[in-house]
Amino acid sequence: MKYIIQFFAAICLFMFSVQSVSAQKDYFKDLPAECSPQKVGTILSQRFIPSKHMLHGGKWIHYAEVCTWYGALRYAEAAGDKKLVKQLQDRFDLLFTTEKAYQPIMNHVDLNMFGCLPLEFYKVTNDKKYLELGMPYADTQWTLPAGATPEEKAWADKGLSWQTRLWIDDMFMITIVQAQAYHATGKREYIDRAAKEMVVYLNELQRPNGLFYHAPDVPYFWARGNGWMAAGMAELLLSTPKDNPDRARILEGYRLMMKNLKDYQSESGMWNQLVDKADCWPETSGSAMFTYAMIMGVKKGWLDAAEYGPVARKAWIALVPYINKDGDVEEVCVGTNKQNDLQYYYDRPRVAGDFHGQAPMLWCTYALLCE
Fold this sequence. Notes:
GO molecular function, one term: hydrolase activity
Active site: 110 (nucleophile), 169 (proton donor)
CATH architecture: Alpha/alpha barrel
Binding site for substrate: 110, 169
Shape: globular
Oligomer: single chain
Protein name: Glycoside hydrolase family 88 protein
Helix content: 55-70%
Order of helices and strands: HHEEHHHHHHHHHHHHEHEH
Keywords: Hydrolase, Signal
């Protein structure tokens, strides 16, 4: 009798688990037709293909373009769209020939992150030319250059990247290329050092409300800056092995952030340019980054689906109408350097079609399609 009871208890537990997984997926099923990830992903990807390059300093491919390109490629993979993969590859291959001068140099966190893109093409094509292009961007992030400053040397002496700045943007820029290097080579050193770096940023910058100041001397919760942290933590959680000693701390920081973002979400489903200021304007790039991180959390089981699934769904449905008839995401805050002036953040110009907004919307389409 004892074994029969145990058998039926096991069956019930199994059925409950199956139902729980199904419930997780339901939050992202039956979306309004205009919010279909396939529809949105196609619109944004095809908008990207013929677009002009966005250049850092007028010279090299800008990180925002990299993020958009990377998002379109991940979407194409998830959607099984081989034609789109080829279009994105053809655009990239010009960087080996007529547009080679646009390849970023390797001396700044915003430039080194370029390496994530050829490493993703390596994953898709298994062509080693992409591996050979991408890996130096990951390696030089931890190779102290000649003429390094005392501050850069101090970071390196701690086992961190010499490009460490304690700006929250860094925690996508550094982690994405290191995670990609790990996937390309299987070498733990890449993901382990990225996880260690993230923990330093969490310990130094995360506030009790789960959010992050734009910089230690700028006490404002700028949406896109916080979005980089949210997306960076999601990327690391996707990639970091469970036996990594820093994974638990990253998950703790991620969950604290998601908990408070849930509370700061507006009735419309969006988050504001300054996340904790109800009188500030809804901003799309930060909102899309939060949505991406939250969708992934629900899909991967890092977050309770019943609690966070409706939040992420509401956010996605709120975001899609910001895509105009030309395929440009509107209400995107322009590039923003830190400034210790509250009004500065309220007054930042808003634009349409900026890659800072196009990119995280594409990330969301990938997240919605992945298992």
